[in-house]
Design goal:
The complex is a heterodimer of chains A (about 350) and B (about 260).
Chain A lengths: L1 H9 L2 E10 L2 E11 L4 E5 L6 H9 L6 E6 L2 E2 L10 E4 L11 H11 L4 H14 L15 H13 L5 E5 L7 H18 L3 E5 L2 H7 L2 E6 L2 E6 L1 H6 L4 H6 L4 E11 L2 E6 L2 E6 L7 E6 L5 E2 L5 E12 L4 E6 L9 E4 L11 E6 L5 E4 L2
Parallel strand pairs in A: 3-8, 3-9, 6-7, 7-8
Antiparallel strand pairs in A: 1-2, 1-4, 4-5, 9-10, 11-12, 11-14, 12-13, 14-20, 15-19, 16-17, 16-19, 17-18
Helix pairs in contact in A: 3-4, 3-5, 4-5
Chain B lengths: L1 H29 L17 H6 L5 H32 L5 H9 L6 H14 L5 H27 L3 H8 L4 H12 L1 H16 L5 H4 L7 H11 L4 H23 L2 H5 L2
Classes of the chains: A alpha+beta (about 350), B mainly alpha (about 260).
Bound molecules: adenosine-5'-triphosphate and magnesium ion.
The site of adenosine-5'-triphosphate has 12 residues of chain A, from strand 2 and helix 2.
Organism (chain B): Paracraurococcus ruber
Subcellular location (chain B): Cell inner membrane; Cell membrane
Protein name (chain B): ABC transporter permease
């Protein structure tokens, strides 16, 4: 129980050792998480890794088989959903089609017995907050996707929840609108000063909206860190692959001394900081933008370009790698030098300090 | 060829509509006849057969009994049927598909068989009271109609709304009441309508359960027809048609017939 106490100290929301089984499937596997007051945390992971399940446990819509959940120092593990005061924005918003925009927003206030005279100004305030005042009398079925999302957010916020959970709030919006709404929602929630957890399986979205990102894998959190750390110092190959792209090469440690490793890869020797015994099978990796053409850094490899993708502000080179399998090569350049195209032979350089080493899977 | 085919289909449609409507249309003028026999076209105009309804022994009583049984059976079916439907849709009931089929098929047994079986069962458990046996039997009759429409509405209902209501401060039963019920109201209304009618004009099941003092309207009407086949029956039928039209208009106002028909 001391672990629980320590976690509680650390966070506004704490999940300690939560497990949940559906039949034979272990969907949450002894998962722990602490979120500070006012913080935005994303739960990022592939479909089926348990993100929604974790959210439903926190909201009280599901009871975990084991573990504890507490908010603001109070254990709420066994508290029913309607007494938790945890706001939820559902994936398809789950607005009430039989009610107008204003009635949807007033729903929670009415359910909690707030008087008409007190609820009217609060609904008006919430409508103004999400810029929906002029649509107050419309049925929610007459709204666009972005407007529906705003109503869902206002409906959840108007009851002043201690925590806001958002399950893929942008997945129903088209790409352009999604990018606008991500920034808008982040700004709005910051203004309100609420603690929020976003669920997403889109890594770019996670990077945009969150202070910290929890990368989930099969019911566990692989790494919980701020976006820069997650990207720059991924804790595992899984996180490396899930967040951003990389050039990664399988290899074997040939030398280990003073925290530096020499690794033999299919494209030649590479040096990187790390702690592995000589002979270990490892994977070395480097982020695309840490690679330059030429010889301007310690590590150099020769490769052949397979494909070039122009992305507007930058250009990606996909390298031809000699071995089939786990190896992959993505390099990003601010602009493509003359004479380089599919089939070109190039020399790539990257700094030892930017090179990461992971145990081979 | 296509025009010919369509022409045949059109003709069929017109004929079938006539065939469906004619008996209903014929009964209305006959109810206003001056003649003492049930004959079309009617002769003259009088309201005597309407006046006579009150004087026929047991007719109004039977009407009242049928109305009460149908209303109570429908209400019970709505409550129980909705709970069963929620369990089937959400409760991970083993064999839910088979149970659903069973509960939705309107009276897979012929009414006769059901009537005899219910009579036997009532006897076995010592239920001798005709009123109670009729009510229970009519719950059995109405349940499939309610189940069918309620299950139909539930399959279109997004239960995330119930979750949303819960996170906003409603307990589970309150969330069902405030979110589920208003959203499946069309299903309720059309289910209730079908159920009420099925109960109201049921003959084969009720036949086994009535006694001398407790007779439902269809049974009383048929008895009367055997004794004196005069246009009183047309008057009663016309009254029922009027009532049905009234109810349909009310339903239309309440939820819209289109919404009901689509379920
Ligand atoms: N009520 C349930 N009964 C049985 N299995 C369930 C239930 N809810 C979820 N699961 C299973 O648990 C696993 C995790 O589900 P969950 O919805 O938490 O995933 P997710 O990470 O939110 O995925 P997605 O990105 O697709 O929404 C899935 O394999 C799912 O099939
Ligand atoms: Mg999900």
């Amino acid at each position: 129980m001391t672990g629980m106490a320590a976690l509680q100290q650390a966070g506004h929301l704490t999940v300690a050792g939560a497990s949940k089984r559906f039949g034979a499937a272990l969907v949450l596997d002894d998962l722990s998480l602490a979120v500070a007051k006012g913080e935005f945390v994303s739960l990022l992971g592939p479909s089926g890794c348990g993100k929604t399940t974790l959210l439903r446990c926190i909201a009280g819509l599901l009871r975990p088989d084991a573990g504890h959940i507490s908010v603001a120092g109070r254990d709420i593990t066994t508290l029913p959903a309607h007494r938790r005061n945890v706001g939820v924005v559902f994936q398809n918003y789950a607005l009430f089609p039989h009610l107008t925009v204003a009635e949807n927003i007033a729903f929670g206030l009415r359910a909690q017995g707030v008087s008409k005279s007190e609820s009217a100004p609060r609904v008006a305030e919430a409508l103004a907050l999400v810029r929906m005042t002029e649509h107050a009398g419309k049925p929610v079925t007459a709204l666009s996707g972005g407007q529906q999302q705003r109503v869902a957010v206002a409906r959840a916020l108007v009851v002043r929840p201690s925590l806001l959970l958002l399950d893929e709030p942008f997945s129903a919006l088209d790409r352009k609108l999604r990018e606008t709404m991500q920034v808008e929602l982040k700004h709005l929630l910051r203004e309100v000063g609420i603690t929020a957890i976003f669920v997403t399986h889109d890594q770019e979205e996670a990077l945009v909206v969150s202070d910290r990102i929890a990368v989930m894998n099969a019911g566990r959190i692989e790494q919980l860190a701020d976006p820069a750390t997650l990207y720059g110092r991924p804790a595992s190959l899984y996180v490396l692959d899930f967040v951003g792209q990389s050039t990664r090469l399988a290899g074997q440690v040939t030398e280990a001394a003073g925290g530096m490793l020499a690794v033999q890869t299919a494209l030649g020797p590479v040096r990187a900081p790390g702690q592995f015994a000589p002979g270990s099978r490892v994977v070395v990796a480097v982020r695309p933008e840490a690679v330059v053409l030429g010889e301007a850094a310690e590590n150099r490899i020769a490769a052949r370009v397979r494909e070039v993708s122009f992305l507007g502000s930058r250009t990606q080179l996909h390298l031809d790698l000699p071995e089939e399998g786990e190896d992959r090569g993505v390099v990003e350049l601010p602009r493509l030098p003359e004479g380089i195209g599919p089939g070109s032979a190039v020399t790539l350089a990257f700094r030892e300090a930017d090179t990461m080493v992971f145990p081979a899977p | 060829m296509e025009r010919l085919g369509l022409g045949i289909a059109w003709t069929a449609l017109v004929l079938v509509i006539l065939f469906l409507l004619l008996p209903i249309v014929v009964v209305i003028p006959v109810s206003f006849t001056e003649a003492t026999v049930f004959r079309f076209p009617p002769e003259g105009f009088s309201l005597q057969w309407y006046a006579k309804i009150r004087n026929v022994d047991g007719l109004l009583g039977a009407l009242w009994l049928s109305a009460r049984i149908a209303a109570l059976a429908t209400a019970l079916s709505l409550l129980l049927g909705t709970l069963c439907a929620i369990a089937l849709v959400r409760g991970a009931v083993p064999g839910a598909a088979a149970i659903t089929t069973f509960m939705v098929s309107p009276l897979m047994l012929p009414g006769l068989v059901l009537g005899i079986a219910l009579l036997q069962a009532a006897r076995e458990v010592g239920l001798r009271d005709a009123w109670w046996s009729l009510l229970l039997a009519h719950v059995v009759i109405t349940m499939p109609f309610v189940m069918r429409t309620v299950l139909g509405s539930l399959s279109l209902f997004d239960f995330a709304m119930v979750d949303a209501a819960r996170t906003l401060g409603c307990s589970y039963p309150v969330a069902l009441w405030r979110v589920l019920v208003p959203n499946i109201l069309p299903g309720f209304v059309s289910g209730a309508l079908f159920a009420f009618i099925a109960s109201f004009d049921n003959y084969p099941v009720s036949m086994f359960l009535v006694d001398v003092r407790t007779k439902t309207l269809p049974i009383q009407l048929l008895n009367y027809l055997e004794i004196s086949p005069d246009p009183t029956l047309a008057a009663v039928s016309t009254g029922l048609i009027g009532l049905t039209v009234l109810v349909l208009i009310l339903c239309d106002r309440l939820v819209g017939l289109r919404r009901m028909a689509s379920i």
